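User: I'm new to structure prediction. If I give you an amino acid sequence, what do you actually give back? Let's try with this one:
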Amino acid sequence: MTSLKQYLVEHICRYCELKMPQIGKDEVCEDLDEFVDRIFAPESLGGLKQLIQMIVRIRNISFHSAHTIMKELHLPIYIFDALHNYSFDVDDRYISNEYHRTKYQKGWCSEYPFYVVLLKSYEYNLTIKSCELFAAFIKHYYSVLDTLRDKDLARESSTREEDACSNFRLFMRTNASELNYVRETIPNITGDSPTAIAHQLDQYLNSKETWPYLPHKNYLRTLCHFFSNDWRPPKHIRRRRASIDRLPKRYADPIAIPIVGAHNDIFALIPDEPLIPNSEGLNEDDQHAAQTFVINNRDVDTKRDKTELLDTAIPFNKHVQKRTAIDITASVRRSHNMGIQNTQLLMPEELNFLARKLILMSHQAENSEMVIVIWLMLLLSKSVEELQSLVVFTDLSSKQQGLYIDELGQGWWFFYVSHSAKAKLNNEGLRENKEEVFTSCPEFLQKLIVANRGDQLTGPILKEKDPKVITQSVVHKLKKLSDRHASGRVSVRRLVNFVSYYLNSTEVIDPIFIDYSYAVHMYMTRVARSYANVSDHFRSVQLEKLWRNVEQDIESYTGNVLPISLFELRHFDQADSFIGSSFTPTNDAISTLINSLTRRISASMPSFQHRLIDIVDYHNAFTAYTAWMLLFGTGYRAAWNPLPTFALFLPSLNLMGISDKDDSDFSHSRIVAVPNVLASQLKEYKRHLGCLRSLLRVLLPKLCSTIDNIVDVEQNILSFNHSQATQWYKVIRNSRKEQGPFFFLNRQRNSVVATNLSPSELVNYCKNEIQLPANAGRHWLKSHLLKKNICPELINFQMGHWQAGEVPLGHYSALSHVEAINEMVPVLDELFEEVGWKTLKSVIS
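Assistant: Good question. You get back a string of structure tokens that encode the predicted 3D arrangement of the chain. For your 845 residues, that looks like this:
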């Protein structure tokens, strides 16, 4: 058993103990071995994570295909859930990197061709049809495996298995228009036999009208042989060649190292890879055979990529460069500071005109599908290519993204919400989340879709298979409508981005609710979506708020009520649940953490004599309490030594400077609001450190000197000029190296040393009672600020979730930090009161 497999078995067994106690370790080992053998994985199991992600990606598009693939791969559902729903973390970095590998190693294409097909699935163009073809390929692969590995049918350089797998892999990833069309039309119906698929491929190969020129015919030809299973022994044809090969030969650049003591233009050549395997403990330099070859007069220091194209316009004038940079920056700023009058946003007049025209067009059967596409673009913020992956279904046991029609005839949009980061199995007190999101569909749109489907209700929402045809017809119709209307041009781009533009200009609701409801990964939610955890019922209420505002804008302009409702507030499940981040703790878990930390402080209070061991234990307990409160109150990321200096904390303004994720330009340094309870606790902690140095001055003078610099830091920096302050900030923000206010005292022999507080130490301090993730406070704060209906701009201000052009500390920013903090502090105080954070006095201060 390989090391990675051992860790996988342990992880799955822990999952079974938590969720499925009836499954024992022997059954886990047996099922995992069967799955690994079935996919012909290499011994290292490198890249196994990609197989789990493959199932997730296919499941989002076609549930039937994902179910078929899991069945054919002999992947039990509980193993999939264990590896998908929870984080698989290994301390050994090599094993972790091997599990998350995305590239195949040398020789895998010939040794494990089928595994490479699964490993590289993240590169494939996945649609409903291509997922069905993928499932058909896997199912047929196992039925003809003996033929594929028949040595009599193998070519001189490869087996038929290698040919079939490599051609299918390239066919699925190649983005040629011809192959895109093939992937959208084969198989004709779900469940087509391999013979039928081979016949369909053969028709494309032989149709000169459809394919006057097809540069990738070999892909289809090989797949046709695969599905028809009619391989024949290869024919070896001797070809005549000219005595002189006129084709230029391409050689890889040699690997060279400088020779010590020789001239700078002389280098020694070394082999491309070690000739001696590292099995005897040899040093890396000793693994190369002695080389007597050298290369002379060659520049090996610089190398230009052969595919790199030189820029045709390179401005050498510094003023031109600066002006260009300013123009680009200004454009980015404008995009993030959009007004309600922006021309890219559909105006109320245009929305009213478009809605009424679509209502009239919907009565004409020939225009029904086009009307549906336009409505879906507007309401779901999806392009034509994304709409083609949506289906209508009536069976909850085979869910996939699209429209669900329940027994009462009501329509619900269904999408998955999943995150790459998952909580660990040993985490406690976190909210139970669901990945499935149902959102009510307007009644008028549901009737249009059902009527357009006709007798066959289930299936893709759009009947037309070619996205170019749909796009062209929509563009033509919008152009005709716009020409008849005095307003601006209604375009596909304005339709798809309407919700994004509207939220950016009005901030009616946070964009994360659109992201979660319709699987729209917007630019504004790229980072923020990882931390948000919201109630499903509250999400629906927010959507109703958005579309009610849009309808009110139309009504206030026209004076007439819109004849249709763009959103209807309905809850799919009466039991409220949560969606989003899997690291968000419950309020009860936070109360448990607070009580545990408080008890540790009370239990470690030093006696009247103040022994050194008692002082050490008490200081560590008091530090852990204050540090946890800091993470929950400010939205600090899980960083070493949070708050590296007291100089960044201004209690008079309830303000703190944070640099937990930064670069050389300080582009992520931010100012946050500090709740009053936390401000009082930090002042008390500072007094605690002042008294601590007095108690330990005689025993630990060096440590107390360091504490002096921490406590009296304001006196040292008041005289700094701008350059000195900049240099000082560059040093102190590197929290891991510089000693900061939050440190644990650890006994080493007869002495005591101070070490900066690390996230793992903070988590493990109360692991016997509750073990929360180190960044649980950040997830909790983001989620509860959303619940409090705080303005999205203020949430991003507190969390540091801004994009380029949105830096509140920039000289061009119009945000008032004092006003923002004054608005945030009462909300933070209310959140702290709900969970029970209180200011504790230090007994040694």
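You can read the tokens as a compact description of the fold. Here is one thing that stands out. Confidence is low (pLDDT under 50) at residues 259-263, 273-293.
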